[in-house]
Structure formats: C-alpha cells, structure tokens
Amino acid sequence: MSDSGEKYVVPLEELAFRFSRSSGPGGQHVNRSATQVELLFDVAHSPSLTDEQRALVMQRLRGYIDGDGVLHLVSSGTRSQLRNREEVVRRFAQMMERALRVPKPRRATRPSAAARERRLAEKRRRAEVKRLRSRANDE
User: Which of 28, 44, 90, 139 is the most exposed place for a label (fewest CB within 10 A)?
Assistant: First the structure.
C-alpha cells in the first residue's frame, strides 16, 4: 500500500482455509458439520507483499501470527460454513488494511492569537472565581 491511498489486494489463491466442527449454535447439526472456518495466510512467504509491508504486518498483527509467519483467523459465529468463510475473509481484509495503513505525518501548528486570548481570558475568570471564594471563607 502506498501513500497515494490505493487499496492493497491479497489474491484469494494465497489464502488457505481449514474447516472443523464449531462449538457455536446448531444443536445436533453442530456435531455433524464442519462449519468453523480457519483462514491461513503465509505472511512470511507471500509474493504479493513487499518487504516493507511484510515487516508492518508482522509487527502490527503479531498476536495472530505463529512462529512460522502464518496468520490465523477463526470464525464460527454462524451455522453456515459459507457465511463463516465470508466473515473471516472480510475480517482479514479489514485487518490487513489497518495494518498497512501509514498514518499521515502530523504537522506542528500553533494556536491562533484569538485562541490564546480565549484561553487566557478563561484562566483569568477562573482565578477570579477562586479568589472571591477564598475571600468569602476568610471573613
């Protein structure tokens, strides 16, 4: 992903899926169907990532990446394998987009003269309130 704001796209061929029985809703159905979906993405060896992007993803998503450099995401929220697969792919895309986003550098700015004056006027008003309060207690 570059500074021009272009979207990064991972080819679906680079994603691997594993299916297993889910512990989620489904009654007897849950014991017979492999609806839980695990998405696997090999960050360390992906040809579609530059070295810079790979380093960003490895650092920012390290909680999801195993020792071999493979990212693991699991979805088991619905009774449908297809919907779980769609949901895990959507989450993966969002995570990658966030991990590869380069924040705009902050440009230092100064408060305007009017803003400085408003701040100082408010400080004077608060000081006056406190001064009057303490005088009332002294008497």
Answer: 139
